[in-house]
Design goal:
Two copies of one chain form a homodimer. With 293 residues, chain A is of the alpha/beta class. Chain A has two domains: 6-174, 3-Layer(aba) Sandwich (Rossmann fold); 177-277, 6-phosphogluconate dehydrogenase C-terminal like domain (6-phosphogluconate dehydrogenase C-terminal fold). Chain A has helices at residues 14-25, 37-45, 72-85, 100-108, 152-164, 174-201, 211-217, 224-233, 235-257, 261-277, and strands at 6-10, 29-33, 51-52, 65-68, 91-94, 115-120, 141-146, 168-171. Chain A has an eight-stranded mixed sheet with strand order 3-2-1-4-5-6-7-8, with helices on both faces. The longest helix of chain A is centred in the middle third of the chain and has 28 residues, at 174-201. The radius of gyration of chain A is 21 Å and the shape is elongated. The first copy, chain A, starts with 5 loop residues before the first strand and ends in a 16-residue tail after the last helix. Chains A and B meet through helix 6, helix 7, helix 8, helix 9 and helix 10 of A and helix 6, helix 7, helix 8, helix 9 and helix 10 of B.
């Protein structure tokens, strides 16, 4: 479905750039915009982007498929502009990490039928065009969150697109997606960042950490523009998750401070048991939607 | 210095097992004890351990060098027994992750002159004999914490030993070591475990996490016997570090809950800046002791 199609991509960071590379590698034609003209020019020099879209997204009417690869706040601001120009596209997708507000914006912009909110679970602490690679989505899980009016045809097209990129799609209600991500993605991210700031203020350089500590703090190196937008967009759910984590942390601290070895061991054991069951590749905690025919 | 030496190792887990493999690979003779007889027998079948020590550590008098590779609490309990038997050894080391109490126990057991508290910074979430490998210490940082009476000859011998295993040694006061590790190692570990328990209680399986979240929670899979001993041994310093982290986390939560984008971004930026300086391989935060001649 990609060969001979024209795909318009707005935003050539890690995600958008990787989609651009994957589409070009499969014989598709890529039109793109990035407010960072250096990235855009580099992408054109690299032969990945065939033509630039205008600043006002002029040229979008040529696209069969539109991909918005921007932080969630910019996605919501850009959707009305996309709706005006993308007259021909049969499928419009965004790649932001939260989906509830994006799906609502798409409905409000009048493109609900052709829109599928999309979230590839391929987080990386790297960002920008230079980090993009055609294989980013190989084997990745991609959540598809339809609007209330998304047609079966648009959803099937989205599945075919990601399947061509070797990703595994799962259709999911946008609200369920965001509540779930608050725990499984946003909480670990904020924890990693808060730990990084704590160590910075204690005067501990990252180079003093062992391999384990470096892993725990790796996510703190991610794009802060993207993550502050996620935090704002999913604030209530993230706040609940943080409160639960703080309570758990207090239990650990109290057990340790009192040298209550039995309680400390029980807490550590609970964490380890969870890690061990995690080796199984089952996604029992996520409620999946049946695909509409 | 290893070839033709007899090295006694008590504990054949990840650390002790890896020392055993590295010593055997360099032509040393390994005597060992592990209360898990299966590990010990496997190590003998693998040709890594040449003979078993007695349950009471009988046979330790043959050793030129003794390595205790046990959790910190077991190390302290075992040191008096070692002191009685290790009559010939010119160097005794432990490999526990905290050093203040071990060094004090060695002094109290009357082996202070020949003892060097040792901490190889090669943390792994894996544990046990099956995880041991001869190359574990390649390029690793190894902290050497002398007692108040360690001789220059014993310290030099310890340096030569780890140097033969391709590790980089740094002599450090045991108290400074433990205070430092509370931040750079123990705090990230407890954070990882507390996050694992939080997710377990929220019903989120580890398989639902992306690669970033899996990294943040990886340390929670470590040996809980080892880590509850560390937590008890370094409780006051860990408690301080946890309190500082909890305060930082509260700042993040308050900024997010109020959708204060500017504060959220500033906090995330501080974490990211710390990550980026961490790419430099400099250990500015640790106070190193000059080696005594």
């Amino acid at each position: 479905m990609i060969a001979n199609s024209t795909v318009a991509i707005v935003g050539l960071g890690l995600m958008g750039g990787s989609v651009a590379r994957a589409v070009t590698a499969r014989g598709g034609r890529v039109l793109a915009h990035d407010r960072n003209t250096e990235s855009l020019e580099q992408a054109m020099r690299d032969g990945v982007v065939q033509a630039a879209l205008g600043h006002d997204l002029g040229g979008l009417d040529e696209a069969d498929l539109v991909v918005l690869a921007l932080p969630v706040d910019a996605t919501c601001r850009t959707l009305p502009v996309v709706a005006r120009h993308a007259t021909r596209a049969r499928l419009l997708m965004d790649l932001a990490s939260t989906k509830r507000s994006v799906v609502a914006c798409a409905e409000s912009a009048g493109i609900g039928e052709r829109f599928v909110g999309t979230h590839p679970l391929t987080g990386s602490h790297r960002s920008g065009w230079h980090a993009a690679r055609a294989s980013l989505f190989d084997g990745a899980r991609v959540f598809l969150c339809p609007t209330s009016t998304t047609t079966g045809a648009a959803l099937r097209l989205a599945e075919q697109f990601w399947s061509a990129l070797h990703a595994r799609t799962e259709a999911l209600d946008a609200r369920v997606h965001d509540d779930e991500m608050a725990w499984s993605s946003h909480l670990p991210h904020i924890v990693s960042s808060a730990l990084a700031v704590t160590l910075a203020e204690a005067g501990i350089p990252r180079a003093a950490l062992g391999p384990g500590g470096r892993d725990v703090t790796r996510l703190a190196g991610s794009s802060t523009a993207m993550w502050s937008a996620i935090a704002a967009d999913n604030a209530p759910a993230i706040t609940s998750a943080l409160l639960a984590f703080e309570e758990q942390l207090r239990s650990f601290r109290e057990a340790i401070a009192c040298r209550d070895g039995e309680s400390t061991r029980a807490l550590l054991d609970a964490g380890r048991a969870w890690c061990e069951t995690g080796e199984v590749e089952v996604r029992a905690g996520l409620e999946t939607l049946p695909l509409t025919p």
